[in-house]
Structure formats: structure tokens, C-alpha cells
Amino acid sequence: MSDLAKLGIWDDPAIFDALSGYLDVAENRRPAKFRIAATVAAGLDPAAESEDALWAELERLTPLFLARWRAIRAGARLPPASDGPSLLELCRELAYRMLGHCNFCPWNCRVDRVGGAKFGACKLASGSRVSSHFHHMGEELFYRGTEGSGTIFFTSCNMRGAFCQNGDISTDKDNGEETDPRTLASMAWTLRREGCHNINWVGGEVVIHLHASLTLSPSWAATSRRRRRSWLAQVRRRPTASGSSTTSPRQLFLTERSTHRCSGTATSS
Ligand code: SF4
User: Taking the domains of the chain in order of start, what are their residue ranges?
Assistant: First the structure.
């Protein structure tokens, strides 16, 4: 049992009932939802179908996903990852289709963030920028635990809060550094390897980075070496906003050491 699970807060029945699923994932006793989604086979090739067909397939697969998720919460084992396209890949493809007429959030701007000629309320094109990433010891106790919450701060926001406590990074879309999904995966993997209890995407409101987070999610959803290779090949084909070249898997996931860390930041999400 880790030090997170030893905290006295879990003795409170209300907290335990509400967050026991999170604790199971944090302790690696249960898989995160994105790993379950990777086991649900899609009945089509996401890259070859219309957006309407993708939405219809999402409708069909959602009850299957929920049934599998409930079964796993009740103790069932995680099935093997799908051999072909999965619900996770379907969601990733849908996110990129939506990015071309962005309606990620209620602003419903309908701008083409891939083309980037016109911005919506969040002022972002397809690239995501990260201000800092670090072990956050200022989050609520069940998130920060003893090793911290692995917090990755995106810049920009769609909410325009006048009194935002993170206004220095959420109101300036050019703050931080442009970060492609592979580097985001490296940050998350490094924080987790360093002992963080969770990965905490904050900013700014993070749904505006939905496409980036869905692209990095398959990194470890697929447990087989073959699927990891397949995922990396797909990500390599996906053009980055900066047009940068590919990076080796070893560079991506094992050696990136938080060079942008900002240990003095004391904000919370
Ligand atoms: S994510 Fe940005 S561009 Fe898309 S709807 Fe929201 S504010 Fe508009």
C-alpha cells in the first residue's frame, strides 16, 4: 500500500465512497477509463469514415464501454486491448474532426483551429502550450497525497474569469512553450515515474486541449509492445503544429526530465 492509501482521509466513509474508484486507479489496482476504452473494438476505420458515422459509432459503443467499466469496478479483469481500432482511437479521431470546426466547449466558435486563420474565444489554434509541470503539493490532500499531484499547466483559457487565480498563465495564450502530444506524454510519464499519485491537467480550462490529451492517452492504454509501436507510428504521422520532426520513443518516455519545471508556483487548479 502506498502512502496515499495510508492517509487518514480514507477513514471518512463519505470520502471513501466518492473517491474509492480514483484511489483504485491511483494505486494501479484498477485501470483508468482510457485503458478500458482501448479494449472496446470499433466496427469501422475511424480515419476512413465521415464524422456522422463516427458519432453514430460512438453512440453504439458507449453502452458497451459503460458496461465494461462497471464490471471492472466490480472486480472483473481488464480485457486485452482491441486488435483493431478501438473506442479510444475513435474518440481521438472525432476530436481532430471537431477541431476543424471547433465546438469543444459551449462557446461553439466553429472556427477551423487546424487552419488557424481565425481564433475562437480561447485564442488557440491546434497547438497546446504548457506553462509548467511539477509535483503539486498545494492540491487537496487526496490529490497531492505525499508525493504530489503530477500537474501540467496549459496556457490560455476559454472562461475569461476576471479573478482567475492562474490569470498569469490562463489569459496569455503565448505564455509557456508549444508542446506536442508526444512531449505531453513524456511529461505525464515522467511525473508518474517520479511517484506522483495522478496526472492533473489544469490551466485554464482543459477541454480546449481535448485533441492533444486524446492523442497522448493511447500511449500506455495499449499494453502490448506491438500496439505501442502502432500507436507511435500513428502519432508520428500526425503533423505537429510546429512541424517538428519525430523523436525516438526512448527520448519521449524515459529521459525527459522536467526541464520546464516551475517549483515556485503555488497555484491550485
Ligand atoms: S475550444 Fe476555443 S475555439 Fe473551440 S469552441 Fe471553445 S473557445 Fe471556441
Answer: 120-269
